Amino acid sequence: MVRWKDRCVDMLRDLGLQRAACESIPLELKRLELEGVAIRCAATDGVTVKSSGRQDRMLWNLVQREDLERNLQMAKQYVAFVERGLGALDPQEARTLERVYVLGERDVIEHLREEWAMMEKRSVYKRLDRILYRLTVAMYGMEVS
Fold first, then answer.
1. Cα separation of 79 and 14, whole Å?
2. Who's near 106: CB < 8 A, 6+ residues apart?
3. pLDDT cut 70: percent of the chain above it
4. What percent of the chain has pLDDT over 90?
5. In sequence order, which residues have a C-beta less than 8 Å from that of residue 135 and are 6 or more positions away?
6. 65 vs 28, 30, 49, CA distance in Å?
7. Distance CA 71, CA 76 (A)
8. How remote is the C-alpha of 65 from its chain's centroid?
9. Residue 85 class from Cβ within 10 Å (0-12 exposed, 13-18 middle, 19+ buried)?
10. Phi, psi dihedrals of residue 144, rounded to the nearest 5°
11. Is the pLDDT of residue 2 over 70?
12. What would the pLDDT profile of 117-126 be if each residue is shown by its tens digit?
């Protein structure tokens, strides 16, 4: 059985990495594109090159670019999905989840306890659970199992 709340926590923890992938993949795609140009230009530089080796490199380059383009689309969808769920929360709730799970701030539970004027950490965790419940419903449309 899928534990949707756990899935939301995992997705929040990976959100920063997926955002980074959305920034880094286009850089690697550009590098591979330039490498592809260099491979094609090697055929015209006057040096005899075994053509099957060049063709293999060109094919490998194309396969890598296709894989990265697919990965970029998946990363963008991932980020959009999680951010849409966060957008359904009020801004303070979304910021709280970002602080706890995405940014992993140091001593965040203690800071939240002080900000929310709560006596016990257990109360902070209960409030976080309620916020996660709301995120889970916003993302998956169902109750936490």
1. 9
2. none
3. 88
4. 71
5. 8, 12, 85, 86, 88, 89, 93, 97
6. 9, 9, 24
7. 9
8. 19
9. buried
10. -65, 130
11. no
12. 988 989 999 9
DSSP-based helix, strand, coil % in the chain, nearest 5: 80, 0, 20
pTM (global) more than 0.85: no
Which of 58, 29, 62, 23 shows the shortest CA–CA distance to 43?
A: 58
The b/e string for 11-31 (b: 16+ C-beta within 10 A; e otherwise) is: bbebbeebbebbeebeeebee
Which residue matches tokens 């490498």? 35
Domain ranges of the chain: 4-140
**Distance (Å, whole) CA 78 – CA 70:** 12
Local confidence band at 1 (pLDDT 50, 70, 90 cut-offs): very low
Instruction: Using DSSP, state whether 53 is helix, strand or coil.
Output: helix
What is the C-alpha separation between 6 and 39, in angstroms, rounded?
A: 46
Helix (H) or strand (E) holding 81: helix 51-87
pLDDT at 93 over 90: yes
Angle value at C-alpha 32, between 26 and 36, nearest 5 degrees: 140
